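To whoever is on call:

I kicked off a structure prediction for a single chain this morning and the downstream step that reads the tokens threw a length-mismatch warning. I double-checked the sequence; it's 248 residues and nothing unusual in it as far as I can see. Pasting both halves so you can look.
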Amino acid sequence: MLEQLVVLPLLLTWVLLVTTIAPITLSNRKLFVSMPNFGLAVWFLVFISAALATVFAVGFALWSMYRTYQSLSSTELFGETWFIEFVLSLVPWAILALIGVTLAWINIKLDPMFQSAKDIHTKLAVVGTKRREYRGVPVMEFAAEFPTVFSTKHAGGFGIFISSATMRLLSDQQLDIVFEHEFAHIRNKHYLLKRVAKLIRTLTPRLAASNALESEVNILCEASANKRAAKKFGSERVLEVAAVFHGA
């Protein structure tokens, strides 16, 4: 039964590290911004490892309980061996409870640090007019007095939606930079990564790590799209276009 005192604490310690320390150590890393695809891979691999460790820990606790039941059934009731087996059977659940309480307390403290803003286009009921195509993706213009652009599902595929204000403010080349940025989101399936991150946050709303994951995935997806646009048009021109949106 020694494994109950070693394996389970190791598994749950990893879960504790991922859900508390990882958000602090992995958030806002310059390395990830410069290598966004690597950053996205690290974030999701860390979360996957924590999920697997949690599943294995619960399974191990259930297996230990069944094994203890078999041992208790074959030993003398209330004998010395029976009592030891009984105490050891409680260890996995005591560890699970301790880790759960620790996680709850730490996340109450950390949660305000990782609240992320909603994307503006989730609040828009967009009806756009097709203006052109960019690399096979339809570009839809909609009336709005503020500069914004995003890509989303449209007519069985994906479309790039751009406000009329953006069309007025940017030159043709600057518009191509914006379209390349959005095309990168579509090609790299960033919408799927954001959806998974949002699902994790929805399933664990009080977990600071899930809030950090959603926030960082959004940031790194934008950095990845910017990097692709910069590769084609140059980083200085991408920064010029970004300034138009940030200054709005």
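Update from on-call: the warning came from a stale cache, not from the record. Cleared it. Sanity check on the structure: The radius of gyration is 25 Å.
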